[in-house]
């Protein structure tokens, strides 16, 4: 029995179908990559801000728990350390430290003292036994974390800010959020 050409139909993709599929895939990837880059940069900003915020809260809690002065030190590269101001057997020199790996990934960290930006070196705040920061002009009051526009365009970037009040309360906020919203820095 001879089968006709209609009965023995080949299965598979033609070259045209394959080319259309590859072209559509390339277009979808081209659309998704900028959004993914912005999402990744903003996620790194948030992770860095959360880490520094957690370090400040830890330093405050340790000062209250240990009933002594505890210092939070933030390096320009994002490394931070919580340590006792006066080292004793109950209060070690290094309570906790954390490398700032997120910051080294291209993020920008600007620490602000009460009256000026920390130009270089470490930003420091010391919490007393009541969990309040020392009220001196040189103590840390604000940290801004951003990503350079070469990584994420300004319109897609979400900077984060950590503020520290005179009572020792810390707050993580979005400086670009409109006033009246829960995430605004006002």
- Looking at the structure, the CATH topology is minor pseudopilin epsh fold
- Total domains, how many? 1
Radius of gyration: 26 Å
Total E-strand runs: 8
> What is the N-to-C succession of helices and strands?
HEEEEEEEE
Determine the strand fraction and express it as a percent band.
Answer: 15-25%
Q: With helices defined by DSSP (H or I, 4 residues minimum), what is the helix count?
A: 1
Low-confidence stretches: none
Largest sheet: 4 strands, antiparallel
Can you name the CATH architecture?
A: 3-Layer(bab) Sandwich
Helix-and-strand structural type: alpha+beta
Task: Tell me the helix content.
Answer: 25-40%
Q: CATH superfamily, please?
A: minor pseudopilin epsh domain
Strand order of the largest sheet: 3-2-1-5
* CA-CA gap between termini: 86 Å
> Which CATH first-tier class would you pick?
Alpha Beta
Mean pLDDT metric: 81
Shape: elongated
């Amino acid at each position: 029995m001879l089968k006709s050409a209609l009965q023995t139909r080949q299965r598979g993709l033609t070259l045209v179908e394959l080319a259309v599929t590859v072209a559509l895939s390339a277009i979808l990837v081209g659309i998704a990559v900028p959004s993914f880059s912005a999402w990744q940069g903003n996620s790194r900003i948030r992770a860095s801000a959360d880490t520094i915020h957690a370090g400040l809260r830890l330093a405050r809690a340790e000062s209250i728990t240990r009933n002594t002065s505890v210092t939070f030190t933030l390096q320009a590269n994002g490394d931070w350390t919580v340590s006792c101001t006066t080292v004793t057997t109950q209060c070690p020199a290094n309570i906790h430290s954390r490398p700032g790996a997120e910051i080294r990934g291209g993020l920008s960290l600007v620490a602000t003292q009460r009256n000026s930006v920390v130009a270089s070196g470490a930003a420091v705040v010391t919490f007393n036994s009541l969990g309040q920061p020392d009220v001196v002009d040189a103590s840390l009051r604000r940290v801004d974390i951003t990503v350079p526009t070469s990584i994420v365009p300004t319109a897609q970037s979400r900077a984060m800010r950590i503020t520290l009040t005179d009572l020792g309360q810390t707050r993580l906020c979005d400086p670009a959020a409109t006033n009246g919203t829960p995430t605004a820095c006002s």
